[in-house]
């Protein structure tokens, strides 16, 4: 976990979670294995429950997911905040991950995903993708989210010394509250598509 990613997640907490201070908040960190650092200390409010999830046991992993695109260990609609940093570039079929993210989020739940737009190949075990703001917005829209922010940091004002290498893109979005039959139909259609895609893998 490089320093500029930690900095961006701290900024996300300051800008988007102030209203939740002292209130119960269930947080899921996907790809949480600590490699040099982790996000856990950023979300240290005593009222908050942080859960680190990954595909392998390791430092900062609370839940080991048995399957990458079917998180049976995480109940539907149980998460208030989904976070993930430096993970989606390593996910071969990241669109399936986005649909699982949508499934586990409560209506109104928040998302913060940090991904590189640049940087050298770093296979863990694969390195598939880089994301620009348009790609980040497409990720959020595919998952049926309301986009709050999608921007790439091109360097210059980040206090860390490694931001220019990765030029991280940050996506912040929110799962809408289903308030109409049209929204409900759209959500159900999306879940059926997810199921069909999953069967084909």
From TrEMBL:
Coiled coil: none annotated. One of its GO terms (molecular function) is S-adenosylmethionine-dependent methyltransferase activity. CDD domains: AdoMet_MTases (cd02440). Residues 66-113 form the Methyltransferase type domain. The keyword Methyltransferase applies. GO terms for biological process: methylation. InterPro entries: Methyltransf_11, SAM-dependent_MTases_sf. Keywords: Methyltransferase, Transferase. This is Methyltransferase domain-containing protein. It comes from Andreprevotia lacus DSM 23236.
